[in-house]
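Q: What residues go here?
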């Protein structure tokens, strides 16, 4: 889920943190069978999608899937599932090592190459990630997920216009796909255009199939514009209380890097009073 990890530091580092979230959101959509692989074959069954798990639930799932991976490290689906959940728990170096092995065993598998690119990007190997994603893409059968993934990495490299071109190429193939709209919105956030960012993120959040990550990105953009009460309402949507509290705490930490939480709340309260 997009607001799972907290970051600290200057506003410049805030932008770097957001960029990582863009990559995570985009590349998590590369696999059309990712969620299914978590509930089939030798992989332990999950009680809920990994994106909606709490930190303890993720740790437990990582332990169980890790045990399955140790029993059969050559199993493609287990490797994909294990690398994905490792990244969700912040173990990016280990996830990359797992995906390197899976990619060696499946050098022509587009889904594996896409996941390998995701792991490289999460580990900070951005140029290598671009090359890997490029190998997975084929001109005669272009994949919108790979265009969106490529855009996410380009955003991290500061090549925003190229990134947005890739997102729009992805939208040409799959119009109104919420993850693409979310990544396009976050691209505008990185350049400081919060209004345009909100437009795309709000559109993405209203599409069928939009998940919590899209709404959490919208909450961040709304909060950065000083509308915190609205942002908190968005951040708490469709989550259990523990997850909602964690997301709101993350949202506060992100906003405090830009401005004081109290100043934002005071600004919103004054605005409300002036309209009454």
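A:
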């Amino acid at each position: 889920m997009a607001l799972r990890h907290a970051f600290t530091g200057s506003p410049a580092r805030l932008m770097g943190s957001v960029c990582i979230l863009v990559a995570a959101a985009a590349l998590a959509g590369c696999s059309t069978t990712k969620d299914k692989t978590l509930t089939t074959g030798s992989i332990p069954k999950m009680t809920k999608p990994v994106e909606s798990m709490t930190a303890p639930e993720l740790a437990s799932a990582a332990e169980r899937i890790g045990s399955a991976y140790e029993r059969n490290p050559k199993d493609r689906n287990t490797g994909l599932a294990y690398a994905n959940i490792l990244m969700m728990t912040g173990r990016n170096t280990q996830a990359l090592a797992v995906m390197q092995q899976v990619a060696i065993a499946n050098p022509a598998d587009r889904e594996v190459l896409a996941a390998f690119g995701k792991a490289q990007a999460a580990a900070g190997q951005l140029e290598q990630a671009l090359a890997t994603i490029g190998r997975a893409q084929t001109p005669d059968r272009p994949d919108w997920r790979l265009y969106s993934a490529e855009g996410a990495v380009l955003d991290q490299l500061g090549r925003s216009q190229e990134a947005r071109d890739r997102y729009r190429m992805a939208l040409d193939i799959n119009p109104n796909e919420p993850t693409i709209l979310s990544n396009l919105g976050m691209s505008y956030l990185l350049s400081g255009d919060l209004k345009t960012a909100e437009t795309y993120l709000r559109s993405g959040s209203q599409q069928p199939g939009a998940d919590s990550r899209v709404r959490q990105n919208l909450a961040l953009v709304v909060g950065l514009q000083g509308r915190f009460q609205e942002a908190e309402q968005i951040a708490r949507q469709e989550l259990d209380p523990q997850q909602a509290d964690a997301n709101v705490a993350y949202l506060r930490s992100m906003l405090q890097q830009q401005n004081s939480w109290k100043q934002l709340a005071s600004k919103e309260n004054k605005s409300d009073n002036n309209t009454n």
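A: Context that may help when evaluating the design: The first helix runs from residue 11 to 28. The chain is about 70% helix and 0% strand.
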